């Protein structure tokens, strides 16, 4: 047991820059003494400079004192502040700062190829007179968006199915935490042609049966509509237990021309698992 404590103490000294891995110890000072001598403020500062997964999976197991520091709100609140994970409303605090930190850190778009940068890879296409990829006709609010998917005459749909466990969100996590699931999609008409936009996003259980659905009425554009980007957003909250998949379908059509690609344009779609939008960015 003393050898194990000595190894952990050695590692902390290396992380804090106090010694190198090859450093030797003063034989008059055992590892238990070293642990006792570290003030909690110093220990917290050391943990702030250790990779977060190691803090939870390694440092937390060393001693009761270390566990208390790792489990403290203070440590994770400081970590959030240092890494720029800020609250939307300073008066609404997270119930669990550690959970808030990891949700912010792992937040990412679960949809593949959302900006049409990799042709149609990641998407399942059906319906319509095929899709096409074009450069954006008008600048998108996100300057990194340079391409979009274009619909043709007759209803065009494309979809993705997100397997949450494969993305790192375990069934227990989804059931117990039920984090917000934030949906976003961008669409624009071709101004001189009438067109229609549609979206449907479903939270599905293990058998791929619907638990909750976002299915707003279609957005219809008449000929000579203003050609500007519009954003469709939705947040799934308090959706209950059992969510294992997310089904994303969107598309539309050109309602005037029989040939060519003059329908609705879509791009920069996203699905994100994140802290409550009531309290975070």
UniProtKB/TrEMBL annotation:
Keyword Transcription regulation (UniProt): no
Gene3D superfamilies xref list: 1.20.1280.50, Galactose-binding domain-like
Domain FBA: residue ranges: 100-275
Protein's UniProt keywords contain Coiled coil: no
GO cellular component: cytoplasm
Database matches in SUPFAM superfamilies: F-box domain, Galactose-binding domain-like
Record keywords, A-Z: Ubl conjugation pathway
Stored PANTHER family: F-BOX ONLY PROTEIN 6, F-BOX ONLY PROTEIN 6-LIKE PROTEIN
Cited InterPro entries: F-box-assoc_dom, F-box-like_dom_sf, F-box_dom, F-box_only, Galactose-bd-like_sf
Region Disordered, residue ranges: 1-24
Domain F-box: 32-79
UniProt protein name: Uncharacterized protein
Compositionally biased residues, Polar residues: 8-24
């Amino acid at each position: 047991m003393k050898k194990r404590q000595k190894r952990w103490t050695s590692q902390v000294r290396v992380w804090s820059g106090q010694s190198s891995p090859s450093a030797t110890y003063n034989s008059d000072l055992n590892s238990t003494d070293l642990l006792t001598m570290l003030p909690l403020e110093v220990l917290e500062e050391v943990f702030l400079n250790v990779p977060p997964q190691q803090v939870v999976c390694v440092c937390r197991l060393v001693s009761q004192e270390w566990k208390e520091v790792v489990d403290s709100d203070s440590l994770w609140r400081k970590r959030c502040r240092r890494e720029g994970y800020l609250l939307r409303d300073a008066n609404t605090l997270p119930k669990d700062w550690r959970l808030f930190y990891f949700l912010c850190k792992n937040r990412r778009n679960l949809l593949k190829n959302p900006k049409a940068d990799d042709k149609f890879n990641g998407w399942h296409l059906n319906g319509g007179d095929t899709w096409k990829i074009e450069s954006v006709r008008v600048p998108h609010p996100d300057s990194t968006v340079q391409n979009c998917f274009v619909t043709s005459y007759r209803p065009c749909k494309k979809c993705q199915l997100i397997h949450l466990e494969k993305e790192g969100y375990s069934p227990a996590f989804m059931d117990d935490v039920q984090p917000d699931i934030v949906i976003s999609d961008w669409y624009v008409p071709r101004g001189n042609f009438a067109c229609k936009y549609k979206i449907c996003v479903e939270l599905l259980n293990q058998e791929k049966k619907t638990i909750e659905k976002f299915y707003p009425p279609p957005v219809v554009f008449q000929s000579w509509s203003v050609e500007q980007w519009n954003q469709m957003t939705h947040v799934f909250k308090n959706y209950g237990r059992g969510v294992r998949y997310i089904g994303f379908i969107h598309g539309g059509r050109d309602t005037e021309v029989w040939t060519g690609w003059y329908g609705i344009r879509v791009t920069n779609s996203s699905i994100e698992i994140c802290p409550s939008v009531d309290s975070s960015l």
